């Protein structure tokens, strides 16, 4: 029983809104790394595979659980979600992208502790984002004065929360569990009685969410309508009486959805003109939409160099690669020499570094569709794609945008434009290193930045990456000043 109680204490799937509501639990992100260093036990070796099985996993999981208990002791139960990774991580179906699992995320002691702090801040940022969204939707209209308006308000809130959680989790394995949890948190914040909440959610969703499957707009629309109707007690007909003759809907309605007020459902749910690849939604299009929505000038503050720690975090990360580290190290040096010369980032420069990385005489821009992540992401092709990519690269040296934002944006541009036949993740790292070096910045820790899988459709993740780079630069500067003093 003791062990079961201890497990429930650090199980993020058990968290209530009272446990995670940021208004109830103060948190200083700037001090997170110091707290992690102070409370975490010694970091064990990363588990390794042998012919007889995986060695060291039990020790690593005990260490992760001890970290969770220590963070809960320090901050409250909400903190146990720091390791709730997306997909099949340590816990299934979570919203954290920085941490994956003990088998992949444990590295050197200092890098691992930095990754824990980054993951804790990412988890907290997600909770704060949800709280902000709840505040936008609440309080709901008075149902006695405006019953139709109450239905509409519920419907919009549910739809937005579902689509936001889908984006955050990447609709990976078990994503729907956290989605139902988020809806339950919103019902709690809206004052719905505890005994009603789970039944309302179960009835609305009706088993239509699946692992690895992004729900269609029609499914999300129907779930939003159903939950709105059942929570308010309004008949289904109330949803039709508000039909909009123009077929329009306010900007708060999810983009590209068929109007929930129309009396007919379009037979084609895919918006016209949106590129597709082998029957799949295109992820480069998703990234371009995310890229346009992020306020890059505001998500981070201006950072100026020089900032140089006593270590080269990117070079150290490259040196630990099991294969190809010599070529990538040479390309990194080449990129930094080019940065010292100044000038814009161009595809020509990127292609020169890529030839060194791959050991090939030429590394041309791809000439057809591409895919990545085992086929889970796909990237379209059209004739003007190289020109569009070149314009994006030029923005990487636009000094009117803060350096952390520019570095994050170009890293994601290279990853999702996927310009080369091979080595695009390495090319993204080199582009980021170039942008940082051009402003005189050499971060001393890079594992939290380079060990995380990024998703093309993740709006919060894109902005969060910029914030992470800002945090790594600030931490390097702090250590630089401490060493100098």
From TrEMBL:
The identity of this protein, by name, is: Fido domain-containing protein
Q: Where is the Fido domain?
A: 345-474
Annotated stretches, region: Disordered: 255-280
The record's annotation in Pfam families points to: Fic
Domain of life, per the record? Bacteria
> What SUPFAM superfamilies does the record tag this protein with?
Fic-like (SSF140931)
Q: Coiled-coil ranges per the record?
A: none
- Cited InterPro entries: Fido (IPR003812), Fido-like_dom_sf (IPR036597)
